Amino acid sequence: MTTFIILAALLLLLLAGIPIAFVMGGLGLLLLLIEGFKPIMAAQALYASIDNFILLAVPMFLLMSNVLLKGGIGKDLFAAVQSWVGHWPGGLGVATIISCTIFAAISGSSVATAATIAVVAIPEMTKRGYERKFVLGLLAAGGTLGILIPPSIILIVYGVITEESITRLFLAGIGPGLFLAFAFSAYAMLYARFKGQYERAPKASWEERRKSLLRAFPALLLAFVIIFGIYFGIFTPTEAAGIGFVSSLIITTAMGRMDIQKLRVASVEAASTTVTIFVIVAGADIFAKAITLYRIPHDVSQMVGSTFTEPGMFILLVCIVLLIMGFFIEALSMMLVMVPVLYPSLLGMGIDPIWFGIVFVIMVECALITPPVGLNLFVLQAIAKVSLGEVSRGVAPFIVIMLSTVVLLFFWPDLALYFTRL
């Protein structure tokens, strides 16, 4: 009964619109005080949550993505990819997804990926006659690749919560991330083939391809260095974030696209997002400390173990709950609320936490593009200056593709786990 009351209070406070950090931190502190625990435990949990070497990767990756965004790297990437595939049926849609995939491998942020590519892709695709709701849906879905393809900020947070290997989580995200990119691209080509109401981009000459590829080469090299540096153990994810920031600064400065003013704006925006994430993580850690003392994860684990004998039913229930929560709660909040409660049940049912982390992130991706709180929808609404409804109508096919990928992952776990065993 206590478990139900606490979880119900948490959800009600979140639905009331109170910021997640204050809900979790305040509720956790209240629970500690009710049971007579010393309030200093909350302060200790708060400090311990952010005194973490791995979390240093978050501000560095955010700063790197903001520097690249202000330096116009997204435009170079899109132009380079478009020169190779733009003349295909639905080629601009394919170019959009490939550009999102590459930028996701640099930034680790869904919102940054969507915003960077949207600025270039929206005018180009609408000018060619692509239906606007399709363009917006494609960009919203493509942006979600930023939290699945490594380096992923949300996978870093998942690893910190569960104490699982960040590197293994990054490797597990490669297969599903590339599969989703392929599926989105295939849908874009099929859409163009059967709708046909668009103007194909002219085929670029080899000289145009060479020049555009040369301009985008530094960004492509940066993505290669980050991913393979982590993969081969040359540096940790945190070190990769630092190297990425310094490299992005050198690249944009050498190209004449970075100055003190742009760097200041990029730094302020990265700092603002970092503080938001860290405050949420700190509040979640206080709440996690409280519910652990109340034995809620243990009770939930026992209840799940006695109710569900098949892991498949458990995963199905979790996906349904996450899909419903995604309509009301943003991505990071979902992870910080659900993972501490569900994690003990995973171990009891023999479910691989790395595999579950990827499934969880794909479900979180759905939350990023489902109204009324999908962050990617708001980003594209602001850039395209359209109504939220118009953006929302374009994402439905991509949500179906994401959910189908979760089903595929259940029956073919190696889509995520193959790279982790190499």
Quick take:
The protein is mainly alpha-helical and 422 residues long. The chain has helices at 2-15, 20-34, 40-50, 57-70, 73-85, 91-107, 110-127, 132-144, 153-162, 166-195, 206-231, 237-254, 260-293, 296-307, 311-325, 331-349, 353-368, 375-384, 388-393, 396-411, 414-417. The protein has one domain.
3D structure, described in words:
Helix content is 78%, strand content 0%. It is built from 21 helices and no strands. It has one domain (2-421). The chain is globular and about 70 Å long. It has 422 residues and is mainly alpha-helical.
Keywords:
single chain; 422 residues
Along the chain, the helix and strand elements come as HHHHHHHHHHHHHHHHHHHHH
Give the N-to-C terminal Cα separation. Answer: 46 Å
Average pLDDT value?
85
Proportion in β-strands: under 5%
Tally of separate domains:
1
Low-confidence stretches: none
Portion in helices: over 70%
Task: Briefly note the structural class of the backbone.
Answer: mainly alpha
- The count of DSSP E runs of length 2 or more, i.e. the number of strands, is 0
With helices defined by DSSP (H or I, 4 residues minimum), what is the helix count?
Answer: 21
- Computed Rg: 22 Å
The biggest beta sheet is recorded as: none
Overall morphology: globular
